[in-house]
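thread from #wetlab-drylab

HS: before we spend reagent money on co-crystallization trials with copper (II) ion, can we at least see a predicted complex? here's what I'd submit
DV: go for it
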Amino acid sequence: MKFFAWQSIRYGLAAAGVAVLSPMMVAQFAAVPALAADYDVGSIHISQPWARATPKGASSGAGYMTITNKGTTPDRVSCVSSDSSAQCQIHSMTMEDGVMKMRPVEGGLEIKPGETVTLKPGGYHVMLVDLKHGLEQGQTVKATLKFDNAGTVDVEYPIAAIGAPAPGSTSGGGMMMGDHPGGAMNMQGPSGGMMQMDKK
Ligand SMILES: [Cu+2]
């Protein structure tokens, strides 16, 4: 009986300590907030949506997720709108002549039947163009995605730290979002190389 009494006191103290520390600790150290929800629309499954916080003054931001087509027909996804930016696009990113280039995926990003496509830093991403406000770590940003077959879904992207790695990846860093005055987006990579966006 005494044993149990001591246990409950110790648990009580531990819980109190955690309650005081955790909100700040979680916000600062979790690479991606734990509350990312999954989404199902038609035969499309979306998991682990997340976005990266943006540095002060950034005019664009990026969101990522994993999309699986569980159906038997190909589908295509585009981004319709976001609550945090004037425009929302799906971008590809490729290395051309030593320069990272990203451009909108024309007609939407194809997800073949049975295929899983992961949007992540350095690859496909949801580009939030002309941010209305910076993306702050610990908050969420919403984007409306439209699948040609499956339909439309609102996805909440929990915002991780600036430069946060993809969930489950061990490598940190990646590209930092820069500003793109005048429509040309330039981004500074970890190697100092520039990244350009062809904006239509
Ligand atoms: Cu982009």
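DV: The chain has two domains: 1-30, 39-167+175-180.
HS: ok that's useful, forwarding to the group
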